[in-house]
Each structure stands twice: as structure tokens, then as C-alpha cells.
Amino acid sequence: MQELKETKLIINEINIKKLRFLCLLQKVTSKHDALQFIKTNQQPNAAHNCYVYIIGKNQNIIRKSDDG
Q1: Mean pLDDT, to the nearest integer, of 13-27?
Q2: What share of the chain is helix, strand, coil (3-state, %, to 5)?
Q3: The Impact N-terminal domain covers which part of the protein (predicted)?
Q4: Model confidence band, residue 36 (pLDDT cutoffs 50, 70, 90)
Q5: What are residue 67's phi and psi, to 5 degrees?
Q6: What span, in angstroms and rounded, lies between the C-alpha atoms of 46 and 30?
Q7: Which helix (H) or strand (E) element contains residue 23?
Q8: Quick one: pLDDT band at residue 2, thresholds 50, 70, 90?
Q9: What is the distance between the alpha carbons of residues 46 and 28, in angstroms, rounded to a whole number?
Q10: Among 4, 26, 29, 61, which one has the highest count of C-beta atoms within 10 angstroms of its own C-beta?
């Protein structure tokens, strides 16, 4: 998997059949940073808040949730 070099927040939004899908992407280097990013960027009006984070050069920490 390619390493994310950017440190700034990247946001992408698409709308499909009146549904809004919002993707927020930012480089983190620790589980603590990942959990803080998730907590800070929760969308309170969203039906689902999904996430994934992969940390480490060998991808030794991988967590995901599809909120389902």
C-alpha cells in the first residue's frame, strides 16, 4: 500500500440519489491520533460514520468500522 505523504486534511464529497457521501483523509502516525481524528470529524447528522486506519510501515495496526 502506498504511504500518504500529505499531512493536510483532504475532503471529497459525492452525492448519489439524494445521499451524501463524505470522505475525510489525513495522515496519522499513532492509534491515538487516529482515534482523535475520528472523534473530531464525526458527522452528527450522518446515518453512518465509517472509518479505517492503517498505521506503520508494515501496516501492523489496521482497524476499520462500517458502522453496521
Answers
A1: 91
A2: 15, 35, 50
A3: 17-68
A4: very high
A5: 55, 35
A6: 26
A7: strand 19-25
A8: low
A9: 23
A10: 26
C-alpha separations of 43 from 4, 19, 57, 68 in Å: 23, 14, 29, 16
Cα separation, 63 vs 18, whole angstroms: 29
Amino acid identity for residue 31 in this structure: K
- Taking alpha carbons only, the member of 9, 50, 49 closest to residue 27 is 9
Whole-angstrom distance, CA of residue 13 vs CA of residue 20: 7
pLDDT, position 17? 95
Report how far apart, in Å, the C-alpha atoms of 67 and of each of 9, 37, 50, 52 are: 22, 16, 5, 11
Cα 35 to Cα 42: distance, rounded to the nearest angstrom: 11
